[in-house]
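Much of our argument rests on the idea that a fold can be written as discrete symbols. The record that follows shows the chain in one-letter code together with its fold in token form.
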Amino acid sequence: MENQLNLFELNEPNLKKRQTPPAHLQRKIKRPKREQIEFKIESLDDALEPDHQARTIWNFIELLDFSRLYEKYYSLSNGLGRGIVDPKILVALWLYAICDGVISARKIAKYCNENKAYAWICGGVSVGHHLLSGFRSDFSELFDEFVVQSISLLYDKGLIQIKSIAQDGTKLQASARAMHRKNSLVRKAFDVRKHIKNLEKELQSGHFEKEQKKKKERELIESRKKKDRLIQAAKELQKHKEVLNENRSKSRKAPLSNKDISKLRASPTDPECRKMKMADKSCKPAYNVQIATDVDTDLVLKVRICQNSNDGGELLPMYSSLRDQYGLEIDSYLVDSAFRNRDDFAELFDSGCKIYCPTKKKKTAALRKRILSGNYEKDTQADIDWVLRMEEAEAGELYNRRIRASETINAFFTNHGIHQLLVRGTKKVKGFIDLACLAYNMLTIKRLYNLI
């Protein structure tokens, strides 16, 4: 007993290997029975979890005012014609899709039939990709109001006090194909015009069968659209040259040389985009998206679409639009050194707003050295006040918060697949970015406040 490890004697384990049954014997396998008829009593609401994100988005949508959007429709309850799809459904679908990393209208329409969350938002209403893309484009100018409303919800309840604002620009690749110089655009426009005249002569002759005639008519319509795009691209190229010369004159630089002008290009598919240097050092057609955020909460306040490749001169337009739209008295404004502009800094200084911008960069090193040495007779009071303020320890602590406030929304774009735009033109691009920022604000409000 002393040497026994167990209380009772155990039998020797049966280590005999289990033999595989013969191959001719039938195995017991559970196979799919797709013809089986089942009766399920379940509503769309029962199919979704109580804490699902789709419910959060709908609760958020219910807090917004859609009255201006409803005014754009002409279908009346007692009138003729079919009813319209509720704009709340369309906005909710876009917000949920953006949070889900989907920015294509076709994919959203597909998921409305396959995904229970998308189907729950639709609530039995049929939604197609033409309706989704058309809504995004036709009402893009109204989405900015929803961003303002998302901030007003918190401001009216006293949950936020907007005192410090950070502004930053991020470049998003445009949905544009090849970019051409002005001479190439003009030459292509002449070639298309000749092709249009030939098509018109062929159609006037009338020697075509019915199907062939329809094909020629469609080709004529597409050719005319192509000609208009080429002409618009040439006009945008001229506009781009004028803006660049105006910026150079403000910086006391000589106008663009003929060699520099010959390098300017525009895309017929998206004439309003510009060729810009991206974060990965490559040059691509893109838009410069300017975003203003609240430093304390990281919420997006305002979006502007810029066609300039750099951020210089974009501070004052954003600051003015923020004051006009929100009616705020901004205490401090945080930007990086790319926004440095003497006239803009002077305007903000006169309005009582403090600028926080690095002074140790190469661009402003000489100004900082001159002011700190006391030799600032030729400098403006705005520059003197700015340089001396940035030497204080409190200024460094406040400016460090700009990175979180500005880069969080940029990270949201990257993490949710918004690195190349699928829409064209500044108006449509701004509308889509406003929707993305509204989705970002919704997630931020859910994280910080118990409202949705």
In short: The first strand starts at residue 164 and ends at 173. The chain has a mean pLDDT of 88. The beta strands are 164-173, 274-277, 283-294, 300-306, 332-334, 354-356.
